[in-house]
Amino acid sequence: MVKQLLDTVQLDLESFQKDGLHHVSIELNEIFRRGKRLDASFYAAEGRNARQIIAGCPYPKIPLFGDGGFAERAYNFRSDQFKKIFVKDGVPIYAASQILDFIPRSRSFIANPTKDLVESLELKKGQIVFTCSGTIGLCSVVSNILKGRIFSHDLIRIECHNSDDVGYVYAFLKTKIGKQLITTNNYGSVVTHIEPRHLAEIFIPNPPLNIKKEINENIATAFRLRDEAYELLASANDLLYKRLNLPPLKDLYVKYLTDDSDLRSFSLNINNWEHRLDASFHAPLIDKIVERLKAAPVELTTLGDKRVSERIILPGRFKRVPVEDEYGIPFLSGGDILQFDPERVKYISKTLHGKRIQEQLVLHKNMILITRSGTIGNTVLAPAHFDGWSASEDILRVVPSKESNAGYIYTFLASSYGSELVKRYTYGSVVVHIDDNQLSLVKFPLPSRYIQDEIGNPALEAIKKYTDAYKREKATILKLEDLIVSSSHRVIASSR
Q1: pTM for the full model?
Q2: pLDDT by residue (tens digit) across 271-290?
Q3: What topology does CATH give the domain 63-210?
Q4: Residue 400: strand pairing partners
């Protein structure tokens, strides 16, 4: 409903499409009034329609930031404000887009930041954060998952005057209307940006306290469920190490022929070469991992064992036909599967790809999804809200057998031990890959069903909580959208 209204609300000024291009006419005084912006996207019909809906809403309008605004403070850091020295082992720093990840895992580390710098960069509980460079508008509330982590400068931090407004403001920014207001305020050609000062131009309806309170409580509950899910996944990982008697991976002693850290060399028994001549396949760390797994009080088999996985699916490559969401099925990328609420989902045609979707692409609850191209080994246990969606051919699907616990399979493959064993089979130079046959050869510890359940059930419960949080948040956002649109007298008038 909201999308249709954003597409059909009549503008006060002329807006039309010709020869595949969108045109809109505006008055010169609006250009001066709105900062002398000459980029056409700033005046796009979608954003103007969203502002008309807000203008027609009977509730008072308050700026997101600025005098009398919801936010007491809104800020980000420019990349030139602090010098980052990247190292192999230091303080973890996260990419802005990782605010939506099930489990944020640092891809980079910085050396010796000052205490003041750490305190200024780390996220604080109760902040609203959203991406402000490149991909604009990915949004989250800082709960226990994100609290204290250091994120890059491409993230705007918003601190509300009233903590009871946090959930309401967040929900508004996640509505289609809120997203349009943010994305039509950006600037830049190759890489788009938005600054904190632009938030003063975003006005938000301020409904009665009881409405805001209900929305805030629902959003708070959703993030509490995510925090609980995160703790359950951490608990499952701890149990894995305990039951299999595994030390932390960093504690495994690996001996090389020389002490040169830049060029590590080692010897190899020719009987163990397995037709692979790439040194990374034979890294001594892998031998140490396999050695520890053999010493564990469980059977060591492979992921392809029918007692572990029913099958491993590698979809074929194909030419995709993208469509609007109402005509297609969600199509997730390797980055999308890491997020509890994928924001930039594309859709492919159900009509043209129906057979391939059913046979190869469709996702089901409790499938284990593993990225196989470019970035290798990112592992996710598919939650119920992914059920029936589709995903890229760059993602391997492990279908658990009926004899195994999907939560246990996920917990091992997502662990430091499992990740190294998966990445061992990587091949390629510029863009690396792994295929279904190679994944089936990955060493896998197979304990009794009792121990599998002890380790895996917390992971299964965690994924259930993620889905409960997803559904609660989506229902709350949809309810807010309907409230704003249905109360907008301009929308009602223009619909007649």
Answers
A1: 0.88
A2: 877 888 888 888 889 999 99
A3: Adenine-n6-DNA-methyltransferase TaqI; Chain A, domain 2 (3.90.220)
A4: 309
